[in-house]
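Work Package 3 committed the consortium to producing structural models of liganded targets before the mid-term review. Because experimental data for this complex are still outstanding, the team generated a predictive model from sequence and the ligand definition alone, so that downstream docking and mutagenesis planning could proceed in parallel. The input record is reproduced below exactly as it was submitted to the modelling pipeline, together with the SMILES string for adenosine-5'-triphosphate.
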Amino acid sequence: MEKLNMETLQSNAIVIESAYKSYQSGKKSNPIFTNLNLTVQKGKIYGLLGPSGCGKTTLLKCMVGKLRLDAGKVRVFGSAPGDRNTGVPGARVGYMPQELALFGEFNIEETLKYFSRIFGMSEEKFQARLEFLMKFLDLPSKSRKLELMSGGQQRRASLAVALLHQPELLILDEPTVGVDPLLRQSIWEHLIQLADGEDATTVVITTHYTEEAMQANRVGMLRNGRLLAEDSPTNLLRTYAEPGLEEVFLRLCHVDGAVLGDTNIGSAEPGLDEEKRRTLNLLKNEDGEEKSEIPDINFIDNKIDQDERVDDKPVLKYTRTRFSPRVVQACMFKTFNRMSKRWGFLIYQFVLPALQVSLFCLAIGQDPKELPISIVSDELVNGTHCEYFSQDCPVNFNLLPPMMEPNSNLGNLSCRFINYLDDTTIQPIWQPSHQAAVESVELGQSWGIVYMGSNFSNALYSRVMESGLMPGGDDDIDSKAGKIQIQLDVTNQQIAFTLQLKLAQAFQRFVDQLATVCHISGDAASLPLEFQEPVYGTDRLTFTDFMAPGIILTIVHSMALGYSAMIILIERNEGLLDRTWVAGVTSSELSVAHFLCAVSVNLVQVIVTLAFMIGVFKVPVEGSLILLFVLTLLQGLCGTTIGLIISSVCQTQQDATQIALGIFYPNMILSGILWPLEAMPVALRYFAFTLPQTCAVEAMRAILLRGWGLYHPIVARGFLVSLAWIAVTYIIFKIKIARSH
Ligand SMILES: Nc1ncnc2c1ncn2[C@@H]1O[C@H](COP(=O)(O)OP(=O)(O)OP(=O)(O)O)[C@@H](O)[C@H]1O
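The resulting structure, written out as tokens with the ligand in place, is given here.
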């Protein structure tokens, strides 16, 4: 393809040559326009006419650099849109899309302020333009929210955004839809005035009102992806001897339909034979020369590099740094402004972490309380409960072995044992018989049975004697009779473990008391195991303390992920993202702005979470609070970057929510938050270590409960893995956002 010559580029604002664009629909490619040539002169108004779906919006998007051609060239001010120095997208172009593509919660002033910040307008200039546009476009109060405006008012507010910074090029997609005839005329007059001035503005405008295009300097009639005619309105009327543009268009459509069988571009023949082309006579320029061939379908594969420069130097140099802190700031202001209007959002983001911590600390890890247990002691006279029992030594030490006998106080050892049950945890329910106790468990009224037989006290005495603790035991005693027989409902493992522990502790206290009152050593009645002061932690540590480090990180990580997973998606779905791109915001600026906003939200979440966990619920902290804070923040950042990737790849909020939930549960289950990693199959354990939270949870637990510092490999690993995840996911996010740009 021939290079566009310098003269063409200098005199024209937009030159499109042999453009081919298609949309992918599954495996099928639907061509929207093929071999399209179009020229927009500088300082002129170009009206693009065509039926719905003929590709006008697509063409405009290619002009502003929002979409790329599959083949062919588009040059705006001599360069391909998106070229470093072209200024398009950027301050040289004002774009008004068909949809509102603005935040409905913003009022007019806030909306325009956002774009004025991007374009670096001074406050004075901004106020002057705001006043002018309010009057000129007959807009309601500056403080009226866009969502509360009528359709026509919204379109005028949208037009105000395009006109705000007085760009050299205006690309307006149906700006007069929903606008009353008076205002429509006034808009056209303003456009004519802009195109007429010293620094004449170039305007490309699409419209459905064919006749208003009479005011354009040049009109292009688009149908089925091809330009049927392109000329000044008067020339078109003269050439086709018709009274109006509508009639011209209809006539061209009839001819086009006759030649192409009125097929749409997707099913049209890729090439036309000479006869048809002669009949059509529509692909000719003003000099009567054919513009170019309808492309062969292979043309699609023969893509032309969009970045191929026409000339070494751009026709008009326009420079802007690729990264401007001012633009980042503008994007951040906009996001914070939006947040401040959403009370529900603020409560969700900042109250929910506190609520989650509180619920966790209140509901998880504490000992179960008031567990009903059926108690049966067949040695009790009345068969139900203990009225009186002795706390004295049951052995008469006045007699020497083997004459030593239990004294009269021996009776009711069963009552003595029951007396040592922890009544906070266990709620004894006396039952008259073993059968009644079984029924109680079967009815779900108690968690188990503690049974002591009719000869329990004597049998226990004999057992002790037999064991050699005291000489003179009775060898013939039934060993079962001297045992406390326990049968539990173990379907709830935590409750069963708690009951086993509490019953064992009660028995130990019972034995200790006996040893004390009988003046014998308690050691003899204990297991020869001594658990000394723990190396790390205390005996008072609970399951809550085990889980707390993981819960802190999970709350912060998932809240950050949930917030950032929506952040770009919302802007894209509401269309503001497109306008932001066209205003010239680069992917780096947008990534940094969103990242910093998410970090700010995350910072508050980290502070709230740690304050509640440590300040209110007194989770023990042995190590450095600073390390704790930094590691939690890093995990929040990690959630943020993962969320930003989700936000940049998903099309709908539903997709994003599903992915976020899909990540949340495996992460929670595998990261050693709920259960020790050591309990996992080895292969799964190795996999778990590749997840973003596993090493961090271990490091967090080591800081919180063991007081380890960064010098310790387990702590250092937690920090390094978190940093690596942040770096890698941020790079992926940056690549994704640049591709969607
Ligand atoms: N992202 C997309 N993916 C697939 N097809 C698309 C996409 N965007 C537009 N199209 C299709 O491309 C064709 C041209 O769309 P376009 O929006 O450019 O038409 P238009 O001339 O601006 O229509 P209207 O005047 O109704 O706005 C339509 O058939 C449309 O369905």
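Reviewers should note the following from the model. The two ends are 27 Å apart (CA to CA). These observations will guide the Year 2 experiments.
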